[in-house]
Amino acid sequence: MNSFQRIYRLHRILASHRLPVSHKYLEEQLECSRATVTRSIDTLRDFFNAPLVYDRDRNGYHYDTRGNDVFELPGVWFDANELYALLTAQQLLDQIEPGLLGTQLKPIKDRLEKILAAQHFGTAQITAKRIRILSMMGRQAELKHFQSAASAVLQRKQLNIAYHSRSHDQQSERTVSPQRLTHYRDNWYLDAWCHKRNALRSFSIERIITSTLLDTIAREIPEAELDEHFATGYGIFAGKATHTAILRFTPDRARWVADEQWHPQQQGKPLPDGSYELHIPYANETELIMDILKHGAAVEVIAPERLRKTILLNLQQAQEHYLTRNKHENRT
Known about the structure:
Arc Repressor Mutant, subunit A; 5-stranded antiparallel sheet; 4 domains; alpha+beta
């Protein structure tokens, strides 16, 4: 951590605490020595005129903002996560279909460009060349009905849609009460209450063929119910988790997987031989199967048995494809 980052972190710690913070706590949070923390405190006071005082009775430091506005560092300061969010938002806005929400989004894009310029990142064009955010799983499609979906979500109105399902290769018409817009693996989804199925469903925006915003007020689903349905399953496939996959990764692959988050409620542990065991709750196994298969021989499904057999069948079918092709090539 350089001095710039340390000053920023120190400011954030002080600004987020209502009570005085001890010197020892600052050393632990900033991961530096007592002398370095002291220098950082002096820098905040001397160079940034921070109202930073020491409370002897409580043995800690805090901002004395009595009678004044909350102290902020001059200019605009961001940490790595915040900068990533800004750059992602900027590129996300640029990737939306030209003309789609153009008027509404222009003030936001202009503001982002000013913030990035203030941080000495240059113009949006320069930033786009220097910072790459790769969209590996995005599907190239025109989001013609993004605006009507977004309007229905924000205005709390029902939406009539004609929808083509990839999984069943069928088209249907239905009325939905939109609840959320979700951006997942570089694709947009509409989480909604489907009045035809009388249940919560997730619709890929790109698969909406027609959409009509209705005057009828949307049915409101409690936040907790939405989270239970859409957040406890695995990936984009919603539903309350009913199974737990137990995966065991080889020691070589464990170095990567141990730091990955597959699911918010996952549990993982290193094993004595250097391998790594990951427990993942899921309801629908479709997306989980795809993510397991991409690790090939570096992962083994320990349980449940049904998932293990499905993975084995997929691997056997893949092997048969290769063997059949090799036989054909050898004959020719």
